[in-house]
Fold each of these.
Amino acid sequence: MTEFTRSLDTAADPQGLRRIVIDPVSRVEGHGKVTLLLDDQQRLQQVRLHIVEFRGFEQFIVGRPYWEVPVMVQRLCGICPVSHHLAASKALDRVVGGWPVPEAADRIRRLMHYGQIVQSHALHFFHLSSPDLLFGFDAAVAQRNIVGVAMAHPEAARQGVMLRKFGQEVIRITSGKRVHGTGSVPGGMNRAVTREDRDALRAQLPQVLAWAETAVDLAQRLHTGLPPAYEHFGETPAAMMSLIGPAGAMELYDGTLRLREADGRIAVDGFEDQRYRELIDEAVKPWTYMKFPYRRALGPEAGWYRVGPLARLQNCDHIPTPRAEARRQAFVAAHGGRPVHAVLATHWARMIELLHGVEVITQLLDDPVILGGPLQATGKRQRSGVGIIEAPRGTLIHEYEVGDDDLVTRCNLIVSTTHNNQAMNEAVRSVALQYLDGQTITEPLLNHLEVAIRAYDPCLSCATHALGQMPLSVTLRGSDGEVLDHVLRSSTGQTQRGATPHPMERAQ
Amino acid sequence: MNAGVPALLVLAWGNPSRGDDALGPLLAERLLAQAEAASCSDRVEVLTDFQLQVEHALDLVDRERILFVDAALDLAAPFTVHSLRPARGGGIGSHALAPEAVLQVYQDLLGHPPPPAMLLAIRASAFDLGTAPGVQALADLEQAFTWARGWLAGKHTAEEVTA
C-alpha cells in the first residue's frame, strides 16, 4: 500500500485532470487543504495535503534579544504555547551556560509540561476526535463537536472539560499565568510553586486520576469497538521517533532520541539531542510551504517517520508510572505485540499518555523541591543551543544561535506537525484510495479524510483566527479549469451549493 | 452569586503578535486600565486568551454579565455588538470554540442558562505573524472602546449595535 500511495504524490500529467479541493480541513487550525486530482474515469491520480500557513516563524524570532524568546514563541501556537515556551528555554539554557538547570527548576518545568500534555490531550480527544468515534464518520456536521458530545454523552463531556481545566491550573501555578506565562527563563525558572497552589491541586488529584482512567477506558472501548472495516483505517507503516529516558522509559521533557523502524526494530538509540542535525534533515517540495523532515541515512524518499502519541507509546520500552504502564501493556497485547500503524489507534495511545501525565503530576506535586530552592543556573556562554521536547503532538525542536550582542542570529524550528507531514500525506492517500477512488464524492466520504488527518491533531499555524474565517469549501474543476461544482460549509455547519470558490482554492 | 467572583467578565481573544488579531486583547487591556482608574476593578474580571476553549465555560460561572471581544473579518462598520445565545454546532472549524458554543457548554455542564452575554466584534483585515495592528484597525478599536466603557458602566443592554 505504501508504494502505491507514494505514487500519488505527483500526477504524471496534472493538466488533464479534474480537481477537488477540501479547504480548509475542518477542526484543524490555519489553512489545511486536501487536493484530489481525478482522471476522466474518476480514478485518483494525485492526493496532497497542503499546509499553506507554516512560514515566517524564524523571521519572527531572528533579531530579538534571546531573553525575550521563551515568551515570544508562545505566540506561534495558540494551543500548545507551553511546549514552545519550554523548548526555547531548553535551547537557551545551553546558550547562557545554564544547563543543567537546578533540580527545582527541572521539576517545575516538568510539572508545567505535563500540565500542557494533560490539557492538550483532553481537548483533542473529547473535543475533536471522540465525536468521530462516538457518532461515526458519517454523522452530521452539527453533531461532530464537543457540544454534540455534551448532548449525547454529558458525563464524558464534563470530564473532558474538567481535565482541561486541571491541566490549565497546573500551567498557571508554574508559569504564573493561564496564557502568556513567563515562568521559564534561560537557565531555569523565575518562580517556584506556592504551598497554597500545590495543596489546591493535590486535593483534586484523586478525582482527576479517576477521570483519566475513565478516559483510557473510553478510548480503548471505542477503538476495540470500531467496525472491522475501520480496523486498518489510514494504516501507514512508518518509522517512529521520540525522546526516550533512561532504560528505555517514556520521557516527554528531556532525553535522547530513538528511532524505531516500522517493523519494530530499533534503528537509532541514545542519540544526543544537540546533534539532531546529524540524524535528520528537511526537504522542500514546490507545492507546499511546509518542509518534509527525513532521516539523513535513508534520504528524502524513504526516510520519513512518524512522531506523536502512537510513535511514543511504541518507541519506549516501558512507561515509568504504574497505571499508564499497565495500560500500555494492554495496548500491546490487544495488537498481538505487533507494531501498530493504524491512525485511529493514536487516540487510545493519547489517552494512555494523558493518564501518564496525571501520574507524573501527582509525583511532582508530592516533591517538596518544587516549593523553592535555587532556580537558575549560569555558566560559560556558548554560541548556540538545541532544545527538544515531546510536545502533545510529537517531537518539537528549537535551535538558536545568539550573537555577542545577545540578539538571535539564526533560528530553526521543527514542529510536530512538520515531522508528521509525510506521514499525514501517506494517511490521506491511504484513505483516499480505500474510500474515495472511483466513488462519487460526498460529504461523509470527505470526512473520512478529515478523520485520518485529525488523528495526528495537526496544528497548522494555530494562533490566528477571526470570526467567520473557517469555512469548509469543496470545489470540483474540469480539466480546462472551469468550476463544475462548488460547495461551501460554514463554521456553523450550513451547506451552500453554488457559492464562489474560496480564494485559497487557486493554490496547487 | 459567589461573593468572590467579580460580577462582570470581559473575555477577549486573539494573538497579540498577529496584526489585527490583537484587537481583542488590546481592548481588554485598556478596559482593565479604565476599571482600575475608576476604582471598580473589583467588579470586573478581564481575561484574554489565544482562542476560546471548552474550559472557558467555567469562567462564566457566577457572573452577572459577560462581554466577549474579538477581531472580525468582513465587517462594514468599525464594530458590531449583538447578544449571544447558546448554540450547538459552532466551532467545527478548529480547536477553538465559537462564543455561542462556549455558552452551550456552560448550559450543558451546569444545567441552566448562562448569564447574559454579548459579543463585541471589531473590524479587522490582516493577521500576519509579527505585524502590528493596522491604522484603520486601531481607529476602529477606539470606537469600540468607547462603547465598551459604556458597557462597563451598565449603559448598554442586549440591543444590537452597529457603529
Amino acid sequence: MTTATTLAAEVRSGERSAREVVDAALADVDSGDGAYHAFLCLLADEARAEADAVDAEVEAGRDPGPLAGVPVALKDNLCTRGALTTCGSKILENWNPPYDATVVEALRRAGGIGLGKTNMDEFAMGSSTENSAFGPTRNPRNTAKVPGGSSGGSAASVAAGFTPLALGSDTGGSIRQPAALCGVVGMKPTYGRVSRYGLVAFASSLDQIGPFATTVEDAALLFDVLAGHDPLDSTSLPSAPEPTLTTVHHGVEGIRVGLCRDLVDGCAPDVVARVREAADALAGAGAKVEEVSVPEFGYGLSAYYLIAPAEASSNLARYDGVRYGLRVDAGGEDVAAMNTATRTAGFGAEVKRRIMLGTYALSAGYYDAYYAQAQRVRTLVMQAFDRAYSSYDVLLGATAPTTAFDVGAKVDDPMAMYMNDVCTIPSNLAGHPAISVPFGGGADGLPVGVQVLAPALQEALLFRVAQVVETHAPMGAGASRS
Amino acid sequence: MTDRAELSREDVVHVARLARLDLSDEEVELFTAQLRTVLDHAADVASLDLSHLAPSSHPIALRNVLRADEPRPSLDRDEVLAAAPSVEDHRFRVPRIGGEAP
C-alpha cells in the first residue's frame, strides 16, 4: 500500500484529495473488514468532514500538516469526543467520552484523519485480541491465526492495508507484539514522551501510546506528531522532543549493538534465526555487534504480572455504575450491591482475573511479598538496563517468542498467554522506547518481528537502527494480506 | 521472605468481595487454579533477596506538577451528566448508601 509519507505528500501537493483518500479507505474497510474484524466502528462522518477541511486548506494554499489526509486507525481505548470508546468492554459499550485524547487532537492538527476505532483485548488485557467483548480480530496474513494483542485491531488495520498508520497502546508489549505477529512496524515510545491524557488507564506506570506503520520512516513521521509535553498529563515529560524523521536514514556506522541472549533464548528456532540474521545485517552495515547477557530480564514477566494487575485493580475501581458506563440494578438494594452487579455483568473473564490478582497482591499480608517485591525487581531490571547501556547503544532481540498462533490455542491458559510478553515487558518496566520491525518469516511463512531497544529518550537512534534492519529484511512473509 | 500458604478458595472469595465481583462457584474454582499458576510462576521473584534495593513505583522520577491558579474552562456539566446511568437535579443518582434509611 501507499505509505503515509507518500500519501501526505500527494495530498499536500494537490495531486489527490484527502476526501478521495478517506472515501477509498472507508470503502475498503466496508468491503474487506468482515474477514478480520479490525474495526469496532468507523468515524465515517467525522473522517469525511476532516478530509474536506484538509482539502480546503490545500485549496487555500495553506499546509494542512505532515499527515495531510492520511487515514489513521485508533485503538478503542483512546477517547474520541462524542464517539463510542468501548475499550473492548461491555461496561463501556455505549460510552461517548466528553473529550478527545491529546493524541487524537495532535493527529488532527497534523492533518491526519481518525478513520475508526479498532478492536482490542478488553481494557488492553491480553496478547491475542480474543478478550474483546465484541469478538476476536483475525490476522490478515492468515485468518486462522490471532493478530496478537492487545492492539490487534490497529495492527490488523495496517497489515490489511486499510490504513497506512494506526495508534495503539503498549503496557507490556501491546503495540510491538501484534506488530510482530501481523508483519508491520510497531513502536513504544519512552514513558512520558507521548501524552496519556484520554488514554483509558490500564496500568498507569507502564502505559504508553505509540504508532503502527508499514515502514520505519512512517512510524517516525507519526511519532514526531505525537511526541511532546502535555500539561494535562502530569507524567508528561517537559523537555522538547528530539525530531526523529530527519535522521531516520542516517545508518548505524559505529553504533554498538548488544544482541541480548535473554531476549532470544527460549524463542522458537525460526524466530532465533531471523534475529541472528538481523544482527548480521547490522554488523554488515557498520554496527559493532556483540552478544550480551542480561539475566535480570528473566524476572520481568513475574514482576509485570503483579505490578500491572495491581495498578489495574486500582484503575478499574472507577467502573462502579455511578458516573458513566453500564449500571446493573439488582433491584432496590444499596449502592455496594449495585456496584457489584454492574462489575460482575460488565467485565469479562480476563479482566476479572487481573483485578483479582492485583487485589490479592495489594491485600493485607501479601503486599510486601508480592507487590513491593515486584517493585524491587523493577529496580533490578532498570539497573540491569543501565549496566547494558554502559557498553551498548541499543539492544537487539526477538519481539515475540513465536509467530502468530491459532485462534483459540491459548485462550484457556492464562499463563501460556502471558508468556507472549516475555521479550517486550523489560522496556515497559524501565520506561524505555522499543520497536518491532518485520524481518522475514518463520517456518510457517508467517511474519517474524525483530525488536530494537534503546535507552530513555533515544527514539531517534532507535528509528535509525530499525530502518537498517528493515532495509535488510528478507522479502516474502508479511508482504501481502491473505 | 516468609513462606506463604498456597492461595485458597477462601482467599479468592475474600478478594472477590474486596473487588466487588460476584463469582459463581465454578468461577471461584477456575480462578483459584489459574491464579495459583500465576503466583507459582511469581515464586522465583518472591524468593529473591532484594532487600538492598528500593522499590520503584515508576520508571521516571515523579515530581509535583503545579500551575497558576487561574480559572479556565472545564468539561461541560450537561455533557458529562449525559453519560451517567442515572441523574437527578444535576447530580449522579445512586441507590441508597448502606445503612441509610431509604
Amino acid sequence: MQRLVLNEEQQMLKDAARGFLSESGSVSQLRQLRDRQDETGFDRSLWQQMVEMGLAGTLIPEAFGGSEFGHVGMGQVFEEAGRNLTASPLFATSVLGATALQLAGNEQQQQHLSAIAEGTLLIALAVDEKGRHAPARVETRAEANDSGYVLTGRKTYVIDGHVANTLIVSARTSGAARDEDGISLFLVDADAPGVDIERTIMVDSHNSAVVRLDQVQVANAAILGQVGQGFAVLSQVLNVGNAHLAAELLGVATASFESTVAYLKERQQFGVSLGSFQALQHRAAHLWSEIELLKSVVLKALRALDDRADNAPALVSLAKAKACEIAQLATNEGVQMHGGVGMTDEYDIGLFMKRARPLQQLFGDYHFHADRYATLSGY
Amino acid sequence: MVDLETFRQETRAWLEQNCPHSMRSPFKSDKDVCWGGRNWTFQSDDQQLWLERMAERGWTAPDWPVEYGGGGLSREEHKVLREELARIQARPPLNSFGVWMIGPALLKFGSEALKRQHLPAIVRGEIRWCQGYSEPGAGSDLAGLQTKAVDQGDHFIVNGQKVWTSYADKADWMFALVRTNPDVKKQMGISLVLFDMTTPGVSTRPIKLISGSSPFCETFLDDVRVEKDQVVGEIDKGWSIAKYLLTHEREMIGGFGRTAAGQKTLSQQAIDQLGLEQGRLADSFIRSDLARWDMDAKAFEITGERVTDETKSGQGVGHASAMLKYYGTELNKRRQEMLLAIYGSDAMVWEGEAWNDGALSRQWLRSKGNSIEGGTSEIQLNVIAKNILGLG
C-alpha cells in the first residue's frame, strides 16, 4: 500500500507551485486586481505562465497534452493557491471542466481537453440556482425540439462564469425540481444567443457570476453524457471539486495560522510577546492539532480519488467538512489574535477570512458534507 | 520474508485451530481482560490456553526479536496478524505494561543482560509490571520527583512515595524513576531502575476512583534495596528514557478512543438504540453530533496512519505524540459523552447484571482520567506550543 506521504515528484510540484505562486500569484496581486476593479478578475499573464508550467493539464491525459499528474499532485497546487489567495481559472477550467469532459465527454467533446491544457479554453460549471448548495435542485429546463434542446433558467455562483468560453450547465430534461433523475448536462457556448452573464462581486474578490438562459438553443451534440443521467456525472465532478476546495482551504487555514503565530511572537504587550501567554498558546496549539488532522484527511481524499477507491465520496466529504470547520476556526482565531489590526484592510488576515467563507460555501459547507458523510456511513 | 498472502493464510489457519471459541468475542467487562503475572488467576481454561498458545509463538509481543521470545514479525506481518485477529474478533491474549512500555524501553536502552532477564518473562505473561513515575509532589512537573536513591556501592537504597501507580497492588516488578543526584538540574539527576515488588520496604495502597474501581495505587518505598545492575541505561541519564516512555504512553492512551476489534462502532450503537427513519438516524440532533465525532475520529485515525508513514519516510515533526495524546483522549471523552446521549438513563445505571454492572457509567467516568494521566491535555498543549510552534 502506498504511504500517506507525498512522493518525490509530488513534493517537487508542491515546491515549484509554492515558489511560483508566492512570487506571481500572491496576496498583493489579488489586492491589485480588487483595487483596480479588474473586470477579468485574474491576471492573464499569470494564467499563461501556469499553462506553460503544465498546471492547466495536471489532470488531463497525456494524449491530450496534459501531464496526467493526478489529484494528489493537483491538490498540492491548490494548497499553495490557498496560501496565496491566488486568483486563476485553474479550478473551474482544469479541475471541473477537465473532469466533466473526461468522465462524460464523447470523442469530439474530449478534444476540448487539449484546448484546456493549451490554455486556450476557459470553462465554467453552472450548477447551483440558489445560495445554498443543492445540486439536485434544478429548475432550469431543457426542452427538446427539432434542433436539439432549448434551455431556460438561472444559475448562480458560477465560478469564472463571465470569463469562460464554454459553460457546462445542468438542466432538467424530466422529473420534478429536486429529483436526481432527469438532470442532463449541456455544453453551452458563452456567446450563444439568449445567454446573459453578469459578474457577481464577491467578498473574496474572486470570480463568480450569474448566468441567465433565455430560450437558448443548443444542438443534440451539446449533451454531455446521457440524457437524464447527468446527476451521476455531476456528483463525481463535484466530488473531485470538493477535494481540491478542501486542499485550497487547507492552504488558507495554514497560511492564516502561520501568520497568526508569527504575529504572536512579534507583538509586544505588557513588556512581553503575546505568544508568552498560555491562554493564547493553548488556542494556537489546539489549532495546530486540528490543522494536522486536516492535512491527513485532505491527502487521504486526494489519494482515494487517484486510486478510484470505493470510499472516495465519504473521504471527500470528510475532507471538505473538516476543511470548512478548520479554515473557519483558523481565520476567526487569526483575526481575534491579531486584535485591532486584524480588523484593518491593511493586514492580510482579513483577506484570508474573506476567502475561506466562499470556498466553504462552494459545493457544500460543513453541514452539507457532515450530512453527506452520515448518509454515506449508513445513518 | 514469507510472502504476505502465504503468511495470512497460515496465520488464519493457525488461529482457526488455536483460538478457543470463547476467546472470539469482545470483552464483556474488565474482568475478562488477562493481565498475567505471578498472582494471576485465569478466568477460564480457555483464557490460559489462549495466552499460552500465543506466547509460545511470541505473538503476545509480535514485533519483538525472536531471541527475546518475541514473534519477530515485520511491520507488514504484524499488520496482517492484527487484521486476522480482528477478523475472528479474537480477544487480546495479554494486556501488559511489560509489552507496551518497559519492554520497548529495554529493547532500546537496556543492557543485554537486562533484556535476557526480563523480556522472555514479559512475553509469556509471567511477570506483571507497573510504572513508578508520578509522586504526590510531582504530577505535571514530573521531573521534580523526589524519591531518593542513595548509592551504596553495588546497590541503591531507595526512599520515597509514588502515586497513580497502575495496578501496583497486583504487579510483580516496578520500573521507577528515582533521583540519584540531587545537586544538578532536575532532569539531569534521574535514573530508571527496576525492582521486584516483593523486596522488603515496598508497600501499596489502592486509590478508589469516581468510577468505583481502583486501578491506581499509592506505592511507598521505605529503604528498598535496588541492585545497580537493574538500572536501565546510564545512572543519572534516566530522563531521556522517561520521555521516550512517556511518548509511548501518550500514544497508548491516545489510542483509547479507537474502536477495538469486535466492538460495535458508535454509529452502529446509535442506530441500534435510536433506529433509522428513511435511512437517517431518528434523532437529528444526535445524528449531527455523531457525524461530528465520527468524522473527527476518522480524521484522527488517518492522522495516525500519516504520522506512522512519515516516521517511516524520515519526515514529520517529531512531537506528534503530544498531539495524538491530546486529541485522542479528548476524542474518547467525547465518545463517552455521546454514549450517554445514545443510551440515556441506561448509561446512568451503577449496578445490576442487566446493565452489565454499570459498565457505561463506569467507563464514562474512567475516561475523564484519560486527559489527566500520562500528561494532562494542558501539558500536551504546552509541549506543542513550546516545542513545535516556538511560543514562549
Amino acid sequence: MSWGEFFYMKGYAFYVWGSYGAALLIFLIEVMLVRHRRKITLQNLRMMRDAGDED
Amino acid sequence: MKLAINWFKYSAPSTFYGLAGKVIPWFAISSAILFAAGLYIGFFVAPTDMQQSEAYRIIFIHVPASILSMFIYLIMAGYAALGLIFNTRLSSMMASALAPTGALFALISLWTGALWGKPMWGAWWVWDARLTSELILLFLYLGYIALHASIDDPRRADRASAVLAIIGSVNVPIIYFSVKWWNTLHQGATIKFTGTSMHVAMQQAMFTVLAACWLYAIAVSLARVRSIILERERNTQWVSELPEAKL
C-alpha cells in the first residue's frame, strides 16, 4: 500500500482525516489556552505584588 | 488517624498545587506515547472493515472521546457535590477545571460522529436519542461554565453550578442506555459487559486511544486547576511566597 492510497482512505479521506484533524486541533488549542491562562495568572500575581499590598 | 492527616494534606490547595505540577509532565508524556501507539495500531494493524471500509477508523477517536465526555461529567458532578456537601475548596476548583475538557470531548464526539454519520447514514445529523442526549451533555457543560462565570463570588458560583452539575448527571445514563431504550439509528454498544465481536487489533487501538485520552484529560485538567488555585488563593501567604510568583 502506498502513502497516496493510505491518505485516500478508499474515498473516505475527508471524513477520516476531518475527524482526526479536528480532534488534534481541539487538543492543541486547549493546551495553548491552558498555558496562556497560566501565563496571565502569574502576570496578575506579579502585578498585584508590585502594586503593593492594598488587595 | 494517619490516613486522615494525609488525606487532608493533599486536599489543601497549597499542597495539591505542587503535587499537580510534579505529575503533569508524566501524564502528558505517557498520553503522547499511547496516542502514537493507539493510532499506529488503528491505522496500520487493524484491518479494513467489511461493511464500512476505511470510514470505520473514525471509531478509534469517536468512542474514546464519547466515553470521556460522559465520565468527565460524572467526575465533575462528583467533585461539585463534594464541594457542596463538605465545603472543600479544592473539590470545587477541580470541578471547574474539568468542565472545559469535558465540553471539548463532547464536541469531538459530536464532530467525529457527524463525519461518520454522513458517509454511513447519509446525514450529518439526525435527531436520534443518542445524538440528542450527547448534544444536551455539551449544553450542560456550557451551562455549567457560563453559570459559574456569571457569579462574582467564587464560593456562591461553586454552589450554584454544583446544583446544575448534579441535576444534569441524570443525562449520562440516558446517553449510555439511549441505544437500548429507544429504536435509534445509532448503532448499539461496541463494547458490552458481556464481551465484544470486535477484531482484536481494533479493540487494542480503541482501548489504547482511550487510555491516551484519559491521561490527556488528567494532565490538562491538573494544569488548569493550578491556575484556578492561584487565582482563588492569590491573597494567601503561600501563593505570595511561590518562586514563580516572585520573578
